[in-house]
Amino acid sequence: MAALPGGEVTEGPMLAADGRPLKHSLNRALRREKLRAFLLVSPLLIFILVAFVAPIADMLFRSVENQIVSETLPRTVAALRKDQNLPEEAPGEPVYEALYTDLFIAAEYKSHTRLGSRLNYESTGLSSLFRGTGRDVGRFDTDIYTDQFTEADPALADPANWVDWMARDEIRAALPFAADAWESWVELTVKANEDDPLEEDVPDYVFTALYRDLANGAAPEGFPSVDVSGFESVSIKALFEESDDDWLDPEVWQVIETYSPNYTDGYFLNAVDMMNGPGGEAQWRPESETIYLTLFWRTMWMSLAITFSCILLGYPIAYLLSTLPMRSANVLMILVLLPFWTSLLVRTSAWKVLLQQQGVINDTLVWIGLVSDANRLTLINNATGTIIAMTHILLPFMILPLYSVMKTIPPSYMRAAKSMGANDWTAFWRVWFPLSVPGIGAGSILAFILSIGYYITPEIVGGTTGVFISNRIAYHISSSLNWGLAAALGTILLALVLTLYWVYDRIVGIDNVKLGG
Hints:
This protein has 517 residues and is mainly alpha-helical. It has helices at residues 22-62, 67-72, 74-82, 93-109, 112-120, 126-136, 143-152, 159-166, 169-174, 176-192, 204-215, 236-243, 250-258, 266-271, 292-323, 326-337, 344-355, 360-367, 383-406, 411-419, 424-452, 456-461, 469-478, 483-507, and strands at residues 2-3, 9-10, 274-276, 282-284.
């Protein structure tokens, strides 16, 4: 029902001033407000997606992505799946013939070195194996097939004839190896070398593939009829053995076969000191090769130790700042914030000078007689140095949340507790401390999460026993270029942090964490 201007009441929807139903006008206004709000937050949303969500998604993908093997050696992978010799012995001749074609093409694209580097993460020595054979494969004695085919029918030497032959489906179906090799050569010539296939000589590996086809059957109609039964042949397997006898090692082929799928759990297994064994079964690495579980454990307990140290040192400072007059508190707050105005690298390097055995701290301890000159403390290049330096760096992140929470605690609470008979310690422990717990929680989360991802400070002052898992991640990203393993380590570290965050929420409650107010 709607009211008319004269006071009459009539049936129908209530109308707005513009004559439209009021409900529709309200919905349209609400949509405009939501759109305006979305446009206001869209820059921040885009920034988070680009700078935070996208890198994490890319990291998760890189930790399982393994397409380089199947993309670089597609024919070899397909032949390996049909071979019955593994894992007891090296594969048969068809696998080596497929590898010859793949490696010839990969060497032209310069992708065999990347493949070797990838497989070298799983088995040492494969990088040099692929590099060396990549240089040799173009000089394999397969020109024997080229000479015999062109001598039997000179038309086979003309690339223009090959274009005509390969355009016919029945010929392509009858000569699958030759058709595949021809297509790959044309693509290689055009894309990689930027040449015209009609002006180039047909390569040896195309004639080698043609020999494989004709050795298994007669030439199709429309293609030169060449009898290869009297051809002199060469073993491709023997050529690979001549290049490097490691190609006859079944373990090499097991690695290639194990990591031939497009996605792998190998990076995650390596990240927890495991590996894919024979048949793809997960197994522990030898004790001499284990490192990552130790680093994860060290990162966790040292981060907790740093957080606890920050609480012990930061709580009294925050309490003092919150109870002093504003003028004095501001001066001390400047001292707390002063490290933020100094480079992290400078602060860490300063600790390296202070903590060394001939440094200021040891000299002071010797001077006051706490330690003898012959028994100076070892405070650098170990876990102790890392904890000391990182406690100093992260201390402001503990003090600021504590101070902001303590500043909101009314002083009258303490006076009321004392007026009821409580001494200073009881009033503090029963009144002040429980009210400051949210600040402890906020500071602990900041200090722990920041410390768990630090790598500059542990790298400089940690030595071999004070480095974190983040140092290993940085090494794989910048030095070894094993981005897959770095991504797997980062993913596991992220999962550990989220798990601890969830445990903290279940025990303490994230709602009890406050930064003040």
